[in-house]
Design a protein that fits this description.
By secondary structure, the chain is mainly beta. Helices cover about 0% and strands about 40% of the residues. It is elongated and about 110 Å long.
């Protein structure tokens, strides 16, 4: 799109042209186009050309040109202001299928309507906060925002079988609406953005309750996080607080061939939580990727799966949160073959903000076919406290190593052990808890400094209906001297 003026100087030629604009959304006054509207050309000529990729965001912008002649004295004249406009409606919906997703900044990816339900028509622009009230990605549709265009939007909804992907160099800012969440995910949101200024951003009216917010909604709602954009923002701008997150939704940290999926632990509440890789073996073992923290613990309302199968390459997850309370897992804990969950500090150091993790409390079953290590530096707790029966299962002889194993259950339910579990310090069935040996042994480990022990039973019950038994190791220092009497 171009704006052109015709100017004739008394003593030709015209000395200078300068184009100005005013954003009618915020009315912050006239600004130079040069340096402020990316991609604009001819900003110092008689013809201003605006970039096609950004036209949707310039709805109702006003433009004028200042013409200057210098012939001994400076003379300035101003053109009349012209407004850029185009047909638009309040609601935009995506029309490109999941199999052939459309690009956000291509108008052909969208239709528009006055009520969001009927009479959808073709658009000549893509949706922004300037031209729409709400954007919908319906069932079966997918949109990708992969261009470096910075978008503002008032409301975005991804329906149950819809999908939205935010690319590595793209930015989307969610503005605060009239109430409730402004970004609602009922389908799949794939978050591939790198660090600021890219990524998902939220209008932040510091000191007020008028911040923009988002939410997961329902069993199909899934966020897939693959890169370095902030996760803390997802925690801090969750609608009604992150502790209200939909408990049956899914949150996936996925390593792909590019990007590094950073995490957040302190004060975080997850639905079902998955760590996986499609880009080769990967370890969450750096300051940005380990699950660290101290002031608050971390909660997983649903299942916690490390190395999701099928299809995941081996992964290692370092739980380095040192809050006094262990991580809470409301569902099952599963560590799949080749993968690792450990409380070892990722660099084997301890600070005020992280270190060898406190441990994990699980309400559901535990399956370890990979490696579960909760005994770093003589620290680590595995606590089972679910209401119903809990089963420990999996394969491997030396791949489930626990410093302190604690059972705290009502007498109507029990823990059934069907795999070898190594305990390095204490095994503590509390109160009226019940431990039942299935096919697996519980090994009380012994080393140079200590031998693991069973705490005093005050009402707990241990039964042996199957082959599993206690195995008590005894450490013998072969370097010692023996006197036979």
């Amino acid at each position: 799109m171009t704006f052109t003026i015709t100017a004739t100087a008394n003593t030709p030629p015209v000395s200078a042209y300068a184009w100005y604009y005013n954003n009618s959304l915020n009315m912050n006054g006239w600004q130079l186009v040069s340096g402020n509207i990316a991609g604009a050309t001819g900003t110092n000529t008689a013809t201003l050309t605006l970039p096609a990729a950004g036209l949707s965001q310039l709805l109702n912008y006003q433009f004028y040109c200042q013409v200057t002649e210098i012939d001994g004295v400076t003379c300035e004249q101003y053109s009349r202001a012209a407004r850029y406009t185009y047909p638009t409606k309040a609601f935009y919906r995506a029309i490109t299928a999941v199999a052939t997703p459309g690009e956000w900044t291509i108008p052909g990816s969208w239709q528009m309507s006055d009520d969001g339900v009927t009479n959808f028509v073709a658009t000549c622009a893509y949706p922004t906060a300037a031209n729409s009230a709400a954007v919908i990605i319906p069932d079966g549709m997918k949109i990708i925002h992969s261009t470096p265009t910075n978008l503002d939007i008032d409301k975005l909804s991804v329906e149950e079988d819809g999908a939205f992907e935010l690319g590595s160099t793209s930015a989307l800012k969610i503005l605060n609406g009239q109430g409730g969440a402004d970004f609602i995910v009922k389908g799949i949101f794939t978050y591939k953005s790198s660090v600021s200024p890219n990524g998902l951003q939220f209008e932040d009216n510091t000191g007020t309750a008028n911040d923009a917010s988002w939410q997961l909604d329902g069993i199909k709602a899934t966020i897939i996080k693959t890169n370095t954009a902030s996760v803390a923002d997802l925690r801090d701008f969750y609608n009604a607080g992150i502790s209200t997150i939909s408990q049956n939704s899914s949150w996936i940290y996925r390593k792909e061939t590019t990007g590094t999926p950073i995490t957040v632990s302190a004060g975080m509440y997850y639905p079902n939580l998955y760590f996986e890789s499609t880009g080769g073996a990967f370890s969450w073992n750096t300051s940005n990727t380990a699950l660290d923290g101290a002031a608050n613990t971390m909660t997983v309302y649903g299942n916690f799966m490390v190395g999701t199968t099928p299809g995941s390459d081996p992964v290692s997850v370092y739980y380095n949160n040192i809050n006094a309370s262990p991580m809470q897992v409301g569902g099952n804990l599963e560590v799949n073959a080749g993968s690792l969950l450990t409380n070892l500090s990722y660099d084997n150091t301890v600070t005020a903000a992280r270190g060898h993790g406190t441990g994990v409390e699980v309400k559901g079953n535990i399956t370890v076919n990979g490696t579960l290590t909760l005994n770093a530096n003589n620290k680590g707790l595995l606590k089972l406290s679910g209401i119903g029966d809990q089963i420990i299962s999996g394969t491997g002889a030396e791949n489930m190593n626990i410093e302190n194993l604690e059972i705290d259950k009502l007498p109507a339910s029990k823990v059934i052990n069907n795999r070898k579990v190594n305990v390095y310090n204490t095994f503590a069935p509390l109160n009226s808890s019940r431990w039942e040996f299935g096919s697996g042994d519980l090994v009380l480990k012994s080393n140079f400094t200590k031998t693991a022990r069973v705490e005093v039973l005050t009402g707990a019950l241990i039964t042996y209906p199957a082959a599993g038994r206690f195995v008590v190791e005894r450490y013998i220092n072969y370097a010692g001297n023996w006197n036979l009497l």
